[in-house]
Design goal:
This is Methylated-DNA-protein-cysteine methyltransferase-like protein. Residues 68-88 are annotated as: Disordered. InterPro entries: ATL_DNA_repair, MethylDNA_cys_MeTrfase_DNA-bd, MethylDNA_cys_MeTrfase_DNAb, WH-like_DNA-bd_sf. This protein has 112 residues and is mainly α. It is 38% helix and 7% strand. The chain has helices at residues 9-20, 29-35, 42-49, 77-88, 100-103, and strands at residues 27-28, 63-64, 93-94, 97-98. The strands form two sheets. Strands 1-2 form a two-stranded parallel ribbon. It has a two-stranded antiparallel sheet with strand order 3-4. It is globular, with a radius of gyration of 14 Å. The model has no long low-confidence stretch (mean pLDDT 91).
Amino acid sequence: MSESSAPDPRRQALFQALAAIPPGRVVSYGQLAELAGLGRGARWAGWMLGRLPKGSTLPWHRVIAADGRPSLTRDSPSGREQRERLRAEGVMLHEDRVDMRRYRWNPAEGVE
């Protein structure tokens, strides 16, 4: 098996953690990395999310900056899509920020 076709356990763990984020909740890049068991891998998590295959059904839009800001610019197609998807799930943005105290997902609390 070539190196390019070998499964990457870090990538798989990241995508499993991403898939677990429930609708209406968000996580930061650092939190996503921690949920995947990758420690302080926030930048790597962001890098991987930017390389999701076209048409992926993983909820990439639920991952935002730790301060509650979507990291994609508001005027970009992806930035508009992210904000629209969050609003459709009931996540409100005030001055282009998500209230992390209200919408941050804590897996220890369970899914509502």
